[in-house]
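Posting this for the archive.
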Amino acid sequence: MNKKTQLIVLTLILIAVLGGAGILYSRLSAGAQTGQLSSTTASDSSTTAPDSAAPDSQSQASDSPAQESGTAPDAESSSPQEDDSADTQSDIPEAPDFTVVDADGNEVHLSDFRGTPVVLNFWASWCGPCKNEMPDFDDAAARLEGQVQFLLVNMTDGSRETLETAQAYLEETGISAPAYFDTSYSAAIAYGVTSLPTTYFIDAQGGAVARAMGAIDADTLQKGIDMILPPAE
């Protein structure tokens, strides 16, 4: 395969990835407001953050990578409620896979965690709102270890944010939640990330259930987590 053919193939792949990200972004952006959760299913209403947090979130959400901003029933007689649940699940868009690296340079993929609910947070050490919400994410990650997988994906562009600056921030603040580095823009492109922080809540089946743009507080974070945890038995 010559270089020209390789370039064409890579371009087509990039277009396909961006197209998928655009569809996901549109689904999650409908009715989205800063500092609030936006559900991907039409039957779910948006879950809002407490009023007291809204002003701060609205003033902070413009930070972006470019600028700081008895007998079981038969299958045939399944209840309407069960059918509605299946329909709702089918309405949830699939969360795109991506490749990032850990602190040792090992590749990590979102698909590695299929079967476990995931909280995916995009952040940078220069982003004030990101740092404001980070302690809540760290506390929740420790409290829910083994139940929910947290992926704190750093926007490591090699210029404004480097591995060194990101790791220095984590060490200085004592953040122990799992952090990864998007050195190849794989995650940023897959999710069309244009502002920081941005958080996705992904269920165990790999569905992107909800998204939050801008900094969120502990209560809103927990509401998002509750949306992806399996129902209590």
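The helical segments are 3-29, 54-60, 80-91, 128-143, 163-173, 186-191, 218-228. The domain at 3-228 is CATH 3.40.30.10 (Glutaredoxin).
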